[in-house]
Structure formats: C-alpha cells, structure tokens
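job 3f2a | input accepted
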Amino acid sequence: MPVFSAESAPPSPATLRRDLSKLCALNFLVLKGDKKSAVYSLTIDGILNSPIDAKRYCSVDLDLRNGAKHFNFDFLTKINQGFFSPEESRKLTEATRMYILNTGRISAPPVTQSVQDIQRSASEAIRQIPLTQNTSRAKRP
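job 3f2a | predicted structure (141 res):
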C-alpha cells in the first residue's frame, strides 16, 4: 500500500476508508471513536513496520523525538517472530537462564522487590516467545 505524500493528489474518501480498514485489519492502526470523532493511532505493529528516514530521525534533538513514556514489553514478543533462528533463540534463552541464576547469588540492592519483579517479568516474557523455524532467512556462516 503506497504512502500518501504531499506531492500526490489526495485519495478519494472511498480509497482512504478502504486503506484505513486494511491497516486496522493488519493491526497497524487502532480506531477509536466513530464517524467525525474517529481517531486512528499506530499500534506496536504499526510502529515496527513504519518506514523511517534515519538521517531525518537522527537530525531531531533527542529531547524532541517522539518517545515512549515507559518500556513496552510487548515489543519484545513482536520483534522475535522470525527474527532469531531456533539455535539463536536457544542460546539466548540459556544465557538468560544463567543470568537469572547468577544474579540470584548477588547481594540484593536496597529496593529488592522491583528488581525481582523485573527479573520475573523478563523471565516470563522469554518463556512465552515461540521458537519458530524461519525458512525465508539465509543461513549465517
């Protein structure tokens, strides 16, 4: 689906509705409201699949860039779908397991509850990541 630009003619209302419906069906956009009060927002899938101009992005001051207010753990499960090979996923899972075991032996910082919650959340997120065979990727040497 082509991206609308200022140089091209605006799409017809029917084309615009059809394209927005497709983007919602692909889970790239979420619709809030109805008719004149409708507002479309990017989902995590929409953000991850949006084109980016790296030079333009880096030219914006760090404090002025659009950033998240908190870390989005859902992002981790979205990028892993086909991102790592099964062998890479196995190695990462084992390394994470060893990290969690080893950090349990370290004396706890003053606020132990939040550190433990973060470790537990990370461990649970990693266990939920499916290990899938990616056949479209070339083998690494």
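job 3f2a | The helical segments are 13-25, 44-48, 54-59, 74-79, 86-103, 112-128.
job 3f2a | closed
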